[in-house]
């Protein structure tokens, strides 16, 4: 007799059921907000800016995450479109969330007059914090787990507490599984510390902390993704599949085996391939931005909104200055021309 799995319903208000999944995601968003507000104070950025960013960014991220997931699972949703909106049952993709959040950020930062790369750098540790906490929503829902393992591996090798070990027993499979949620959550925690150390280094240029976030997360996601049994996948060339499996092979030396992937569904995991592409693209972008001079500003340099500069410029104009004399030198305004002398 195994202990019952955790109830995914936290509490109910009448007919409304509040899921742990949503509460955990919300807590992750608030933790990220706290980090960006705290770091934003160093640059004199008002906290209202980040609060509005959260109000816009979270819905954009959820929409992007769900659309990304549904696009790869369309055959399962096209007959029942109502299920597309049931995000409390899981089924959102982090890479889709990032796409939605970045698009929102580009528009919102431009509207506020802040350079995208500078604000994105501030947000980098917060993104990892949200992902670190959000993965525990998968834990409660018993989803996004890895392949089968022995109970002794969880208890003796990983030294996990009972509540995690018990939750990793999937009754439908009558087996214990890799706690991939925990692997990714721990990887994100280490990444937060790394980014906080990097952002204090003088050599960091604008945008490089944000790109470092992508590199760090994608490295971890590449190796963890292969352990899962629910990966989004597609059928690709055998050469590409062999290349990806070869890069992952060092994990076998650590005692890990890849999770089952139905060959009829696909042979290349989407997140693994995307992780590799993101790592290469981020490194190239760092090099290009440095060589072209696009990354001249350092992380520690002041951040000023162009809207604030424009407002200060208008406020600095002397009273009574009109459009007609706006281009006239100030010295000419203070000393009008002498009257022309009468000719004798």
From TrEMBL:
Polar residues biased stretches: 323-333
Keyword Disulfide bond carried by entry: no
Topology versus the membrane: Multi-pass membrane protein
Main location: membrane
EC number(s) on file: 2.5.1.145
Pathway: Protein modification; lipoprotein biosynthesis (diacylglyceryl transfer)
Enzyme class: transferase
Keywords: Cell membrane, Membrane, Transferase, Transmembrane, Transmembrane helix
Domain of life: Bacteria
One MF term in the entry's GO annotations: transferase activity
Binding of a 1,2-diacyl-sn-glycero-3-phospho-(1'-sn-glycerol), residues: 135
Ranges for region Disordered: 314-344
InterPro entries on file: Lgt
Annotated transmembrane regions: 20-37, 49-72, 92-109, 210-227, 270-288
Subcellular location: Cell membrane
Family of the protein in this entry: Belongs to the Lgt family.
Stated role: Catalyzes the transfer of the diacylglyceryl group from phosphatidylglycerol to the sulfhydryl group of the N-terminal cysteine of a prolipoprotein, the first step in the formation of mature lipoproteins.
Name this protein carries in UniProt: Phosphatidylglycerol--prolipoprotein diacylglyceryl transferase
Organism: Paenibacillus forsythiae
């Amino acid at each position: 007799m195994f202990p019952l799995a955790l109830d995914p319903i936290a509490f109910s208000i009448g007919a409304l059921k509040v899921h742990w999944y949503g509460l955990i995601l919300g807590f992750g968003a608030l933790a990220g907000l706290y980090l960006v507000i705290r770091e934003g104070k160093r640059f004199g950025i008002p906290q209202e800016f980040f609060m509005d960013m959260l109000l816009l960014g979270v819905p954009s991220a959820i929409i992007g995450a769900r659309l990304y997931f549904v696009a790869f699972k369309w055959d399962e949703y096209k007959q029942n479109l109502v299920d597309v909106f049931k995000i409390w049952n899981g089924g959102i993709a982090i890479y889709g969330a990032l796409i939605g959040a970045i698009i929102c950020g580009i528009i919102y930062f431009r509207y506020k007059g802040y350079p995208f790369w500078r604000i994105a750098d501030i947000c980098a540790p917060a993104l990892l914090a949200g992902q670190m906490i959000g993965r525990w929503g998968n834990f409660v829902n018993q989803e996004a787990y890895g392949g089968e393992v022995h109970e002794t591996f969880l208890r003796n090798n990983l030294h996990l507490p009972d509540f995690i070990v018990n939750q990793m027993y999937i009754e439908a499979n009558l087996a214990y599984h890799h706690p991939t949620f925990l692997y990714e959550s721990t990887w994100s925690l280490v990444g937060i510390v790394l980014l906080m150390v990097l952002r204090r280094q003088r050599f960091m240029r604008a945008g490089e902390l944000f790109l470092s976030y992508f590199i760090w997360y994608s490295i971890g996601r590449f190796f963890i993704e292969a352990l899962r049994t629910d990966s989004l996948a597609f059928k690709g060339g055998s050469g590409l599949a062999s290349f990806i499996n070869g890069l992952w092979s060092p994990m076998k030396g650590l005692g890990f085996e890849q999770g089952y992937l139905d060959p009829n569904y696909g042979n290349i995991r989407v997140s693994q391939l995307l992780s590799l592409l993101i790592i290469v693209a981020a490194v190239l972008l760092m090099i290009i931005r440095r060589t072209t001079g696009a990354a001249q500003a350092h992380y520690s340099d002041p951040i000023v909104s162009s809207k604030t500069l424009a407002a200060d410029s208008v406020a600095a104009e002397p009273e009574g200055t009109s459009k007609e004399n706006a281009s006239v030198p100030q010295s000419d305004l203070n000393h009008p021309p002498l009257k022309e002398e009468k000719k004798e």
